[in-house]
Amino acid sequence: MTNQKEEVNVEKLYGKECTLSKDEFMKTYKIPEKGLSKEQAQTLLQKYGPNEISQNKPKRWYNYFLESLLSPFNCILLGIVLILFYTDVYLAEVPSYANIIVIAVLVTVSTLLDFFEEYRSNKAAEKLKELVATSATVIRGGKEVQVPIKEVVLGDTVVLSAGSMMPADMRVIEAKDLYVGQSALTRRV
Fold this sequence. Notes:
- The chain is mainly alpha-helical.
- The chain has a domain at 61-131.
- Helices cover 45% and strands 8% of the residues.
- The chain contains 6 helices and 3 strands, in the order ααααααβββ.
- A 3-stranded antiparallel sheet has the order 2-1-3, with no helix packed on it.
- The longest helix is centred in the middle third of the chain and has 34 residues, at 98-131.
């Protein structure tokens, strides 16, 4: 093994697309200089669908309830109830249910408190997600237009400024003082 760094061949890794100039790239992929028209964007939106990650179905109330009931704390308490049932009821000459009732009340209260808190906070988070509509600036018909991120389509020219989120996988065709905060980037292996 050698400790020498191999020189990375960008063209081999990513193809010629990453080394093309802006004009060559736009010509090769037939990207209009003035951006897509509203009609083209609408057609592409219908063809490919919205630019959003499909979400799992929201959990039902009983899922939250089961998660609350089977929390580690409650599982320990339920284990203690089983032991107490064996020692205080099954083995005892005179059955005593007092300890079992106290622990059952603790499990019930813990489950209900956790369930209501979790359920309400998740419902509030879903409503908040609906209210917060992120948008992107794209060039449509030669003008910069704000559109919801879910309406960004394949072939759109996106204009980014300081603090902008990239609304999709994209190629930078022109930049001035570009800085990327890499903390949000992930790498797939």
